[in-house]
Amino acid sequence: MPYKFFNVGGNDNSYIFETDNHLIYDVKFRPSSYLFEKTPKPYINDLVFEFIIELVYKPANLKPPLDKKISLTVAHIFHDFFNKNYNVISIYFCDSSDAKQEVRMKKFNQWWYQLKAPTYIKVDEVLVDSKKHEYPISMILRNMNPYKMEIIEAFLAIVQEQNSNK
Q1: Rounded CA separation 115/118 (Å)
Q2: Domain boundaries 5-164, CATH class
Q3: What is the pLDDT of residue 14?
Q4: What is the pLDDT of residues 6-25, one digit of tens each?
């Protein structure tokens, strides 16, 4: 059973939930049309949302315990957002500010397995910076999205262009 969550909306299409350990998470779907701005398919831009999971409150001195209900809750939130916005595209960048991008991708994949259904397609790629550091990135869209092939091609082209500029 997932945690109860609240769709608070706003510019970032935020969803808030609190765990049994009083951790508070904000799951956001931030409009991110700039990610596909160079694509020759401008209609894709309005469909792109960056997926963000942010721990906004943690009680002092609490090391967040393993909590399988978090993954389940995030999966339910994802379904809710996609059901309200049928043809959207979700992009997830693994934050690298603390060099824990691989750990974040592992956690992201854990909730993906909770969500996994033939309804969605997940495309994983890696961005490489000028110092050859790798940053995982994923894109999720509905399998029945009428622009599916154009979106996947545009995503792969963006990653290839980014990586070739290094």
Answers
A1: 10
A2: alpha beta
A3: 97
A4: 999 999 999 999 999 999 99
